[in-house]
Design brief:
The chain is of the alpha+beta class. 51% of the residues lie in helices and 10% in strands. Among the domains are: 133-280, Butyryl-CoA Dehydrogenase, subunit A, domain 2; 291-475 and 487-628, Butyryl-CoA Dehydrogenase, subunit A, domain 3 (Up-down Bundle). The protein is globular, with a radius of gyration of 28 Å. The structure holds ligand LSKO443Y and flavin-adenine dinucleotide. InterPro entries: ACOX_C_alpha1, Acyl-CoA_ox_N, Acyl-CoA_Oxase/DH_mid-dom_sf, Acyl-CoA_oxidase, Acyl-CoA_oxidase_C, AcylCo_DH-like_C, AcylCoA_DH/ox_N_sf, AcylCoA_DH/oxidase_NM_dom_sf.
């Protein structure tokens, strides 16, 4: 039945122009065209096959990743791809690799933390991949607490060098009697990187200046062996088959390793030839700049991972049929379910399925738009920093930290929900969902544990509340705090379900909830004589206030997007419905907070649920077209359940036949382990 599109009927139902939506999703016609061309290039090249990944032993898996990365680089250079095209190519190859850390963290760290002179030395080497780098910050004992890092970089004025040392201590202070203080986790470190940006405490003349970044060569450029004083290796298998095990997360100890003074990254602060420590006129927090950059990238990436899972679950929900009647006989479910030609109900028509799936579909779009906005915010703060305007740095930190936390938590949970939405078949590796989850879930931890990051947002919120009335007007994402008096008093004016489609009404509801939760936390905090003690005691409430603030940002950026000119038949109308699903499903999920802060009444909450159901019905005929708008190839999706033509069952059957376990009819091990067992039972049962 090759060539039949089993989802054609669904595609014909679409009430909007899919090609226009594809451009909205991509961000621009240019971005769409690049992504479309590069994704097809990757999909059509058998060298990028990835369906065997869950079955490969680690060593083979890793070697395969090295092969793909080298081949990708060959294509990039031979085809003279631009930076944008090259980064799209790596994205569509869709396999975590050392290159993610080289391009995603090492190069940005060089750009952000090095002086112009240092950049002119290191960047050309990194751009040509003549050196490969990673970002080595986390230690075995310290991840979240960056200030607590224990690796030291001690300046030796005799030789004009830093001595980098990660001590192995015998300590009686801590729970363990022996504490090994080494770097632990960096991707690309274990087996590949020739260089690392290592974070260490800077010591000059016996004085500790806190954590700074240093460029350290790890391996010989001749034979790839670790340089003297360096012990390095992989930290071992991680969660899931295939998944993130293509990455060589590493362990590193540095035993009095010497590097030249000019390998301290000196944009933020410098050490002179005489060993004098000098701080530039920029905030110390810029040492953390690479994390701000990557968190912003991770937010954009969340929409990719979630949209992938949602595309799989939506297509499969339209293909999968359960209950109803096959031959026009008695029905097992009520008559209002739409029936297909077979008389069976598509599971996507169950309201419970829609109630689980459509908010995730809406979140994928919401994260796409907030990711676009965050990229703008990051570019803006970078331009300001270049002219010594540091005023928006705290907001940029709070937004990147908070949105990274919000979007990765929702995406990881959403992928798992999509797996369940696909029933039993979702549990098969060929659904693509187990591996997607296993690859994605560490995003809740890396680049800052999601709770730790929300606590940073909470600090920012509490600082803002404490400044209300001081004359300092809150701006940007926190501007609503400037209207806090109104927001504390106001009441929701919704009277009919459709009133929940009014953007200013919705915005005020989310602002009032966020403002009231923050103010309530601040009031409770003020009861403590020691603010830090109060912060620790109230941290669970503070995290909830931070989530409310971050959700407000996502909702407001989606609403802002809808204010723009969006061309294409029906595109804007559909996006309005999708946006409505996003905020009303949040309102429903967090109803308790909206009610407890007394902004809305139970009746208004019920009207919100009515409107939400109405929007599900509006989106239902457009669901397949909405996921087609992501423009994902079958290669990128890596899922039989999500394949474009919906021809799921024969493909599942064929894939099962190809499983190595089915290479022989009688399994290996039969003669050793099954036959004797069966024989013995045969004797005892006298059969
Ligand atoms: C498969 C990959 C898939 C997707 C990725 C897609 C795209 C990404 C592209 C490339 C990346 C490639 C792959 C990514 C995969 C994995 C890589 C993982 C890498 C890592 O994990 S690197 C290690 C990251 N570590 C952390 O994030 C540690 C978390 N901890 C911290 O950030 C800080 O220590 C903390 C907790 C924020 C602050 O601690 P503390 O309370 O002790 O405060 P400080 O004294 O340190 O700070 C005080 C002051 O500074 C402000 N501040 C803190 N951080 C920042 C910052 N980053 N920027 C600006 N300002 C900051 C803080 O608010 C305080 O301000 P105040 O004094 O209150 O005004
Ligand atoms: C796949 C992967 C890739 C990584 N890649 C890199 C890399 O390339 N380079 C690198 O340097 N690092 C890397 N990391 C390390 C990563 O950045 C850290 O694991 C992360 O920052 C979390 O720190 P932690 O492991 O110390 O967690 P911990 O801080 O030990 O967290 C443990 C628990 O304690 C809680 N907790 C901690 N502090 C607080 C607090 N103050 N208040 C309340 N609760 C708290 C957390 O919420 C969590 O539940 C990677 C990690 C993973 C999983």
């Amino acid at each position: 039945m090759a060539g039949v599109d089993y989802l054609a009927d669904e595609r014909n139902k679409a009430e909007f122009d899919v090609d226009s939506m594809k451009i909205v999703w991509a961000g621009s016609r240019h971005t769409f065209e690049v992504a479309d061309r590069i994704s097809k290039l990757v999909a059509n090249d058998p060298a990028f096959r990835k369906d065997d990944r869950p079955m490969l032993p680690r060593k083979e898996l890793f070697k395969n990743t090295l092969r793909k990365a080298a081949y990708a680089w060959k294509l990039i250079t031979e085809l003279r791809l631009s930076e944008e095209e090259a980064s799209k190519l790596r994205f569509f190859v869709d396999e975590p690799a050392y290159t993610d850390l080289h391009w995603g963290m090492f190069v940005p760290a060089l750009k952000g933390q090095c002086t112009d002179e240092q950049q002119s030395k290191w960047l050309p080497l990194a751009y040509k991949m003549q050196i490969i780098g990673c970002y080595a910050q986390t230690e075995l004992g310290h991840g979240s607490n960056v200030q607590g890092l224990e690796t030291t970089a001690t300046f030796d004025p005799q030789t004009d060098e830093f001595v980098i040392h990660s001590p192995t201590l015998t300590s009686s202070k801590c729970y363990h009697t022996v504490e090994v203080l080494c770097t632990w986790w960096p991707g690309g470190l274990g087996k590949v990187s020739t260089h690392a940006v290592v974070y260490a405490r800077l010591i000059t003349d016996g004085k500790d200046h806190g954590v700074h970044g240093f460029i350290v060569q790890l391996r010989s450029m001749e034979d790839h062996k670790p340089l003297p004083g360096i012990t390095v290796g992989d930290i071992g298998m991680k969660f899931g088959n295939g998944a993130y095990n293509t990455m060589d997360n590493g362990v590193l100890t540095l035993d009095h390793v010497r590097i030249p003074r000019d390998q301290m990254m000196m944009r933020v602060s410098q050490v002179t030839r005489e060993g004098k420590y000098k701080q530039s006129d920029v905030p110390r927090q810029l040492v953390y700049g690479t994390m701000v950059y990557v968190r912003q990238k991770i937010v954009a990436d969340a929409s990719c991972a979630l949209s992938k899972a949602v595309c799989i679950a939506t297509r499969y929900s339209a293909v999968r049929r359960q209950f109803g009647s096959q031959n026009g006989g008695p029905e097992t479910q009520s008559a209002h379910y739409r029936k297909s030609y077979t008389g069976l109900i598509q599971v996507i028509d169950y309201k419970t399925q829609q109630n689980r799936l459509f908010p995730l579909l809406a979140s994928a779009y919401a994260f796409r738009f907030v990711g676009e906005w965050l990229k703008w915010l990051y570019t803006d703060v970078t331009q300001r920093l270049a002219v010594n305007d540091f005023s928006t740095l705290p907001e940029a930190h709070a937004c990147t930290a908070g949105l990274k936390s919000l979007t990765t938590t929702a995406t990881a949970d959403g992928i798992e929900e999509c797996r369940k939405l696909c029933g039993g078949h979702g549990y098969l590796c060929t659904s693509g969902l187990p591996e997607l989850f296993a690859v994605y879930v560490p995003a809740c931890t890396y680049e800052g544990d999601n709770i730790v990051l929300l606590l940073q947002v909470a600090r920012f919120l509490m600082k803002t509340v404490s400044q209300i009335g001081s004359g300092k007007q809150p701006v940007g994402t926190i501007a609503y705090m400037g209207r806090v008096e109104h927001l504390l008093k106001s009441r929701c004016s919704v009277q009919r379900a459709e009133d929940w489609l009014n953007p200013s009404q919705v915005l005020e509801a989310f602002e009032a909830r966020a403002a009231r939760m923050s103010v309530s936390c601040a009031q409770n905090l003020s009861k403590f004589s020691n603010p830090e003690e109060g912060f620790a005691e109230l941290s669970a409430d503070l995290v909830e206030a931070a989530v409310a603030h971050c959700q407000l940002i996502v909702v407001s950026k989606f609403l802002d997007k809808l204010q723009q000119d969006i061309p294409g038949k029906g595109v804007k109308q559909l996006l309005q419905a999708v946006c409505g699903i996003y905020y009303l499903s949040l309102l429903h999920k967090h109803q308790g907070e909206f009610l407890a802060t007394s902004y809305i009444t139970p009746k208004q909450a019920a009207l919100a649920s009515d409107q939400l159901r109405a929007l599900y019905s509006k989106v239902r005929p457009n669901a397949i077209a909405l996921v087609d708008s992501f423009n994902y190839t079958d290669h990128f999706l890596g899922s039989i359940l999500g394949c474009y033509d919906g021809n799921v069952y024969p493909k599942l059957y064929e894939a099962a036949k190809k499983d190595p376990l089915n290479d022989t009819v009688v399994p290996d091990g039969y003669h050793e382990y099954l036959k004797p067992l069966l024989k013995q039972q045969l004797h005892s049962a006298k059969l």
